[in-house]
Specification:
The protein is mostly helical. The chain has six helices and no strands. The protein is globular.
């Protein structure tokens, strides 16, 4: 940790082009400080695992059983954004839900893994997952609403 601060201080004392200094600092922080290799691997593996699980249990079951009950995420989007399932590709919506949920869970797992205290991990994880779910499905709903997938032609 002391090494990183020393390098940043030395780079800050250099004379010359500020853009070069800034790029070097950002590059150094990206490689060695903020996004460490272990966390990046954890993020990617978590994303892939959760995405595959969602695909197996959400998308494939919807393909097999057409009369099956809609997932909670679909019901939320239909209720809040008044989406019409006849105007959109349902299987693509399920794929988008799989990707968004995997991304949310991966972000939470990666952030929580950086914390030491178990109680702090629980607290931050719970708050972060709620915020990410609300924000990400709000973005998905707005995108489908802009595409004109609403009932009664409402935008």
């Amino acid at each position: 940790m002391e090494n990183k601060g020393y390098l940043i201080c030395e780079v800050g004392n250099l004379r010359g082009n500020d853009k070069v200094k800034t790029k070097f600092i950002l590059f150094y922080l990206f490689l060695g400080g903020v996004f460490m290799l272990e966390e990046l691997i954890l993020f990617i593996l978590t994303f892939l695992l959760i995405f595959v699980i969602y695909e197996l249990f959400l998308v494939r079951k919807a393909k097999k059983d057409k009369r099956r009950k809609k997932p909670v995420e679909v019901n939320y989007l239909i209720g809040k954004y008044n989406l019409n399932l006849d105007k959109l590709n349902y299987k693509r919506l399920l794929n988008v839900i799989s990707a968004v949920s995997a991304l949310d869970i991966s972000i939470v797992v990666t952030v929580v893994s950086l914390l030491e205290s178990f109680y702090l991990q629980l607290l931050i994880g719970f708050v972060l997952i709620m915020l990410l779910i609300i924000v990400s499905y709000d973005i998905v709903g707005r995108i489908y609403k802009k595409k004109g997938c609403c009932k009664n032609g409402k935008n």
